[in-house]
Every structure is written in structure tokens, then in C-alpha cells.
Design a protein that fits this description.
- By secondary structure, the protein is of the alpha+beta class.
- It is 56% helix and 19% strand.
- Strands 1-2-3 form a 3-stranded antiparallel β-sheet.
- A hairpin with a 4-residue loop joins strand 1 and strand 2.
- Helix 1 packs antiparallel against helix 2.
- The longest helix is centred in the C-terminal third of the chain and has 34 residues.
- It is elongated.
Length: 95
């Protein structure tokens, strides 16, 4: 019982740390920059106009989609890595 309580406490600490963890991803050679935290909440989307040519809206849309997808994937990896140590103590399958 004590092990589960300790694991739950550790899980809460990890969740707090993930909220503060910022992951930054670029796409389109720096035309698009996405910042996301470990809770998969987008913190910022930045566009560099000097790297975007007029009429490239379809490419810009793909770059944004790519950057968001990469950011979410990386934040999931960060969260999974941090939670592995705690998951065993909780007895939750798949974590």
C-alpha cells in the first residue's frame, strides 16, 4: 500500500515537471517554430516571414502541421520516459 502511495506522489511530481517542460520544434528550415509543454499544450506558434515566400500558403500549412505533429510526438516521448519509473509501482499495464 505504501508503495502505491509513494508512486502516486511521484506521478504527481512528474505531472508538475511535465507542465514546465518546454519542447521546441522547427519546420520549413525555421519558417515555423512550435513550443509545446510536456502536457501537450501548445505554448507558442511562431512564423518567420523572411523564410516564407509569397504564395507558399500550401507549404506553410504543411510545415505547421508537421511541426505540431513532431512536437506532440516528442512531448509524448518525454512524458513516457518520465513515467516509466513510476508506472511499475502503480501496477498500471502499458505504462
Amino acid at each position: 500500500m505504501f508503495d502505491k502511495a509513494k508512486a502516486l506522489y511521484e506521478l504527481k511530481k512528474i505531472q508538475t515537471a511535465l507542465a514546465k517542460e518546454i519542447i521546441e520544434v522547427e519546420a520549413g528550415n525555421g519558417a515555423v517554430t512550435i513550443q509545446i509543454n510536456g502536457e501537450q499544450k501548445i505554448k507558442s506558434v511562431s512564423l518567420d516571414p523572411s523564410k516564407i515566400e509569397e504564395g507558399e500558403w500550401d507549404r506553410l500549412e504543411r510545415w505547421i502541421e508537421s511541426a505540431v505533429t513532431q512536437a506532440i510526438t516528442r512531448s509524448q516521448q518525454v512524458a513516457a520516459d518520465k513515467m516509466k519509473s513510476v508506472a511499475g509501482g502503480l501496477g498500471i499495464p502499458g505504462l
